[in-house]
Design goal:
single chain, globular, four-stranded mixed beta sheet, about 30% helix, binds ligand EPZ, about 425 residues, 14 helices
Length: about 425
Amino acid sequence: MEKYVIEGGKALKGEVHISGAKNAAVAILPAVLLADEPCIVENLPDISDVSLLLKSMTTLGAKVEMLDVNTAKIDPTGIKSYIVTKDMSSGMRASSYFLGALLGRFNKAKVAPPGGCDFGVRPIDQHIKGFEAMGAKVSCENDMVVCRAEQLMGNYVYLDMVSVGATINIMLAAAKAKGMTVIENAAREPHIVDLANFLNSMGANIMGAGTNVIKIRGVEKLHGVTYSIIPDQIEAGTYLVAAVATGGDVTITNVTPKHLESIVAKLIEAGATVEQFDEAVRIKMERRPRRCQVKTMPHPGFPTDMQPQMTTMLTIAEGESTVYESVWDNRFRYIDELKKMGADVNVEGKRAIINGKDSLTPAVVNATDLRAGAAMVIAGLMAPGKTVVQNIEYIDRGYENLVEKFEKLGGVIHRVSE
Ligand code: EPZ
């Protein structure tokens, strides 16, 4: 087991390069299974979720060659299997995208139920509703989700709630289905647009991605492409919050500033000064953070995946802040860890009420999931003294070179074996 040992209390300063987006990569890789020729995917983040997906694709029969650490050449033409077992998916949430991709390719798919971070119930009823509307029969056999169709047919699908995963899965299944599929109340996250751009560059016909109505006219073939994944909105936001929380001055590069608007707006409210460039954002904090009210929402609202990091920053804000989590039922499990560091936070249902303190105190804490883990690293960097973050395998799932990147900003953080 490994852990991070952090010597906190120093303002972060300097420049950090943001990697490709995890949540785009985990959709685009399964989408490669729909191609009739090899594809090259660039700007893949070097994280464990990506390597696990590539491994699963190899087990399915794809040929994967890493051209460099962030570029994979994938030839899916030899794939014969439509089965993704629990061992292959390693409990990853994104393994559910194999359902849409394999159904789109073979008209059948058998996939172990997706796991992922534990924030309460994580159903896939809206994914299934979409597949069924397109003519698939969906059942559960020996603990596997099984989808079968004679021929997938385009149809109208209204999502009962905005779901990133259901939107992606239906797009994957519909790309080669017969006729037109319309997704109403679709998710609008940047990674949905990136997936649509990837599929369209292979010859798909997808309109409206980035709005709440997506229209997909099925095509017969998808050719090979070379495609570069968008920058990671959440990784970028994590470094912005870390800069503000430590009273730093940080420039993040290789970003799309438009994707960061809701995060930057809150950090300006908290007292930060922000300069935006074409592909970079500089953030500077020269005061104690002001109190803020935050409510997580689907894009373009404040992202739930930034909630733990933002809450952590607010533990040292002036006065009382509130954070309302409207996407997930139970995403405040990490608060008990923050309390070990002296944070004054009360959770009432989906709301956290934070009474800002002058500073956090170092402690031994656990990463309870990926973003909560990033929040614990930020907390460690804020607290003067030595903080230890355990269970860091969660953080490895989604942050490339985290230690190197924080060290470059002057943070003192070491990865050590227990
Ligand atoms: C994606 O999860 C992300 N994961 C999550 O990021 C992110 O928190 C979430 O979207 C919301 O932005 C990936 O992209 C791999 P949803 P997903 O379907 O697709 C309910 C991270 O840290 N719902 O948009 O699983 C659901 O319970 C991860 O990078 C249903 O009820 O999220 C939730 O309350 C963690 N039925 C809400 O909708 C369904 O069929 C949104 O879930 C589907 C979802």
